[in-house]
Design brief:
Bound molecules: adenosine-5-diphosphoribose
Strand content: 15-25%
Radius of gyration: 19 Å
Strand order of the largest sheet: 5-4-1-9-10-11
Structural class: alpha/beta
CATH architecture of the largest domain: 3-Layer(aba) Sandwich
CATH superfamily of the largest domain: TPP-binding domain
CATH class of the largest domain: Alpha Beta
Shape: elongated
Length: about 250
């Protein structure tokens, strides 16, 4: 199906309900590495071995070293034009939901309000026994991992093998199902159930737009693929420049 930026912008203008799903790609231009790109490893460790209950039980100090570095990188990062454009799009929409797989808080810092953090966030640590929370303004010191209740503080992140926050995912699924336009931005679409938000919307109702420099597992569900970066394409959805999109599966002319 061939669409172009003008068509996507017109559909957004007419839409009474919009749902956006973002992944690490939207934060790549803020200097934060994606998961399956060239930075898919941290030192010599597979992300799956660190972001898991088993990895934390095996070596909580190593896991906190990784998350302390990620938290510090998040605090250094600045929302880019893609984050800012999504916040602007929300302000002019009557019903806008932003479901993100990212834990970097950059959407909130860019001004987005209705944000569902499907994989959690790094603003707090949570005791794995009693659920007590402490703010993560900086690092969590090694001697602060143990909690007085006998549990251990862990990042408030959804790890591999763990369920997403039930309420957040339910609200995201409802938003995707009622949306007139679903924007899928900067995600490989390889991790469920988040990826299903881009395919769950009944095709008859939602116009699905993928914004990604590369083809992904989502592409075949998209009505239009805008092959470009989030910080380049998203502002253009607001600004009115037109550019030929790639026909589904096609290549830029
Ligand atoms: N603009 C838009 N998309 C981009 C950009 C950019 N500037 N740079 C890279 N991308 C795209 C890549 O082409 C890729 O399709 O972003 C996607 C990033 O994919 P992944 O690295 O798989 O990250 P993501 O989809 O967010 O992973 C989902 O997997 O590891 C778990 O919990 C983790 O939330 C994460 C989930």
């Amino acid at each position: 199906m061939t669409g172009d930026l003008a068509e996507v912008r017109e559909r957004l203008r007419r839409a009474s309900s919009v749902c956006a799903l973002t992944g690490s790609g939207i934060s790549a231009e803020s200097g934060l590495p994606t998961f399956r790109g060239v930075n898919g490893l941290w030192r010599t460790h597979r992300v799956e071995d660190l972001a898991s209950p088993a990895g934390f039980a095996r070596d909580p100090l190593l896991v906190w070293t990784w998350y302390n570095e990620r938290r510090a990188a998040h605090l250094r990062a600045v929302p880019n034009a893609g984050h800012v454009a999504l916040a602007a799009l929300e302000r002019r929409s009557t019903d806008f939901t932003l479901a993100t797989q990212n834990v970097d808080s950059l959407h909130l810092r860019a001004g987005s309000v209705n944000v569902l953090e499907l994989h959690g966030h790094l603003r707090e640590a949570r005791c794995d026994r009693c659920g007590a929370r402490v703010p993560l303004d900086g690092e969590l010191a090694p001697d602060a991992i143990a909690h007085v209740c006998g549990g251990r503080f862990r990042p408030d992140i959804v790890w591999f093998g763990e369920a997403l926050p039930r309420d957040a995912f339910a609200r995201a699924a409802e938003a995707a199902a009622r949306a007139d336009v679903v924007l899928v931005i900067g995600t490989s679409g390889l991790v469920e159930p988040a990826a299903s938000l881009a395919t769950r919307a009944p095709r008859g109702d939602a116009f699905v737009v993928e914004i990604n420099p590369e083809e992904t597992a989502i592409s075949r569900h998209a009505d239009v693929a805008l092959r470009g970066t989030a910080s380049d394409v998203l502002p253009r959805l607001l600004a009115g420049e037109s550019e030929t999109a790639v026909a589904h599966g096609g290549s830029m002319p």
